[in-house]
Design a protein that fits this description.
four-stranded parallel beta sheet; 2 domains; alpha/beta; 152 residues
């Protein structure tokens, strides 16, 4: 275990000794360049194991890409990752919600997902399903493509 991993593990143990619960969700933002490093996918697998070993219930990973042409290659490589829990890999064109404990979105800049959530809310308001006064950050989160499914 490298020094950074030991430091994180120590912090988690200290929080537990003080009676604090471990975080339920862990979020990580990486770049396509991070995945080009030798051993990157093995490191990613170890990270997933570490997160769940320390009490996380969900891990969300955003992979920022400069060149959208690499998205399919990264999606295929990530789909082959040996994950301790079910893993969903999504690209910019994916809009359906997923409920996998490990959610990896590749190439989302945030703008596209926010626009899709805003459109979905506008349709719900137009159909009379949602009162415009009820539209807030929680409403946007509720229609975002990475919300937890009701069955997970």
């Amino acid at each position: 275990m490298n020094p950074y991993d030991r430091s994180l593990a120590l912090r988690v143990r200290l929080r537990r000794r003080r009676g604090a619960d471990p975080p339920e969700s862990v979020a990580v933002v990486i770049t396509e360049r991070d995945l080009l490093e030798q051993g990157a996918y093995a490191t990613f697998e170890r990270f997933l194991g570490w997160a769940f070993d320390h009490g996380a219930e969900r891990v969300s990973v955003s992979v920022s890409v400069l060149d959208e042409a690499v998205v399919p290659t990264i999606e295929r490589a990530l789909a082959d990752v040996d994950s301790p829990r079910r893993l969903a890999v999504r690209g910019p064109g994916d809009t359906d919600p997923v409920g996998a404990p490990v959610q990896v979105n590749v190439g989302f800049g945030g703008k596209r997902e926010f626009a899709a959530a805003t459109r979905a809310l506008a349709h719900e308001v137009d159909a009379g399903e949602v009162d415009p006064e009820e539209v807030d950050a929680d409403a946007v989160r509720g229609v975002s493509s990475f919300r937890r499914s009701r069955t997970s």
